[in-house]
Protein: Flp pilus assembly protein TadG
Organism: Kutzneria kofuensis
Amino acid sequence: MTAAYGLPAFADAARRRIRTLHRDERGSAAAELTLLTPLLIVLLLFVVFCGRLADTKLRINDVAHQAARAATLARSPSQATSNAQATASAALASAGITCQSLSVSTDTQGLKPGSTVTVTVSCSVGLGDLTSLGVPGSRTFESSFSSPVDVWRGTSTLAQAGGAP
């Protein structure tokens, strides 16, 4: 029993079976998914990482806004600086952001009615804390906000005279 090519019949049947299996695509989707799953997971984690960075930047912007508003409510430049620092620390804590280093600078321009108070908040955040993924390194976020001092508010007589309260 020889086949058409001079091979035994079982060899010819084996050759046809191999050709059939070679063209058969059953199970290829499962194999592709198995190979792509780690890449898809890494891509998803990167998207989460970028989202957390954007969210933290927005929260730092809000902290600067709150600190500037608190500074404009003060009656003296020193009180404005301490109000901005305290408000920034409290707002960061309530937002769940832990700064490795926090810097709050306040430009009061004399804190006169009609002037503006500018507060700049700089916060260095560890990326491992930020993403909960253990990413090494840190990123410094900085935001400034200016808020006007109410034109119709009163000032203390000591602040007008340039003295300390």
Summary: Residues 28-149 form one domain. The chain is about 55% helix and 20% strand. The longest strand covers residues 116-126. The chain has a mean pLDDT of 83.
